[in-house]
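Example (one chain per record):
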Amino acid sequence: MHALENVSLIDYSNNHISLLVIEEGAQFQWKVSGIYGWPDHIHRYRTFQLLYKITPPNDNRWMCMCDFNETFWSWEKRGGNVHRTQLMEDFWEMASSLGLQDLGFSGNNITWSNRRAGLDNILVRLDRALAIP
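Predicted structure:
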């Protein structure tokens, strides 16, 4: 495991924070961003615009740890209204066009619940880590 030599703030907004990380003894640096996606569907495009805006130059690695308020796949949501396929496709297309790959998960894939009982319960995977390796 490498020790961190330098971490510096790159930029931030109400919906993100980005840091530049330089590893001690390593020949590279990487950007790490925390993202909070717009929660309402009508403004979801703003999350995608933000990601395009903060994408680092091609020579940098990048990891986004995010609450995108969006899913990649229909199986990532259980309960509630049927999820809009177009929103999932837009999310997948945005991530692919930026070269971001889902880093997966270990354990329970549900990251949000409305905590209601029975048929009113909604479970969703909204949080994920994406990276440009």
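Caption: The two ends are 17 Å apart (CA to CA).
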